[in-house]
Amino acid sequence: MSSDFESYEQDFAVLTAEITGRIGKVPKLVGDDKKQMVANVEKQLEEARELLEQMELEVREIPSQSRGMYSSRMRSYKQEMGKLEADFKRSRIAYSDEVRNELLGDDGNSSENQRAHLLDNTERLERSSRRLEAGYQIAVETEQIGQEMLENLSHDREKIQRARERLREADANLGKSSRILTGMLRR
């Protein structure tokens, strides 16, 4: 298991290095190049988040004696991820402010705060949307499992009812047999 974790660690290191390099390029790009770079960085950030999730799953499966070391490494990776996301936001804001300042000739400190706040809110909404989608999928899967269970229970009920009918018939036949045998004994 730790070999899987170490493989994820290597992938995470390579990915974060690529992200860091691309984040540095974002403020210098213009137009479509900038949009494409931002989209690439967002994809890579999502991949890094997924790698962190995989690493967390691996840590949970590691025996508790050695889990502490891996947990501390996970905390540092999460901090690194948070720093990358913050740097990415700053690079996007810096670029937007440069363009706005060139066009308007304005320094715009308050708009930088507003823009940062809007980006934070947008990211929160996106995360919430992803969580809602995941919750919806779980609900749909749970509903399907529930339907299957109800169908199985219905089939079992039918079997039990048929068995009960057979028992009643057998009981009635035994009663008849008993009366016939009693009658034969009397004769």
Automatic annotation (TrEMBL):
Q: Output the GO biological process annotations, alphabetical, semicolon-separated.
A: Golgi to vacuole transport; intra-Golgi vesicle-mediated transport; intracellular protein transport; macroautophagy; retrograde transport, endosome to Golgi; vesicle fusion with Golgi apparatus
- Annotated keywords: Coiled coil, Golgi apparatus, Membrane, Protein transport, Transmembrane, Transmembrane helix, Transport
Quick one: where is this thing mainly located?
membrane
**SUPFAM superfamilies, per the entry:** SNARE fusion complex (SSF58038), t-snare proteins (SSF47661)
Subcellular location as annotated: Endomembrane system; Golgi apparatus membrane
Q: Which InterPro entries match?
A: SNARE, T_SNARE_dom, v-SNARE_N_sf, Vesicle_trsprt_v-SNARE_N
Q: Which GO terms describe its cellular component?
A: cytosol; endoplasmic reticulum membrane; ER to Golgi transport vesicle membrane; Golgi membrane; late endosome membrane; SNARE complex
Topological category with respect to the lipid bilayer: Single-pass type IV membrane protein; Single-pass membrane protein
Domain of life where this protein originates:
Eukaryota
Please give the coiled-coil regions recorded for this protein. 31-65
What the entry lists under CDD domains is as follows:
SNARE_Vti1a
Where is the T-SNARE coiled-coil homology domain positioned along the sequence?
117-184
SMART domains given in the database record: t_SNARE (SM00397)
Extract the GO molecular function terms from the UniProt entry. SNAP receptor activity; SNARE binding
Instruction: Please give the subunit comment from the record.
Output: Interacts with distinct SNARE complexes that contain either STX5 or STX6. Interacts with NAPA and, to a lesser extent, with NAPG. Identified in a complex containing STX6, STX12, VAMP4 and VTI1A.
PANTHER family referenced in this protein's UniProt entry, alphabetically: VESICLE TRANSPORT THROUGH INTERACTION WITH T-SNARES HOMOLOG 1A, VESICLE TRANSPORT V-SNARE PROTEIN VTI1-RELATED
Protein family: Belongs to the VTI1 family.
- Official protein name in the record: Vesicle transport through interaction with t-SNAREs homolog 1A
Natural source organism: Anhinga anhinga
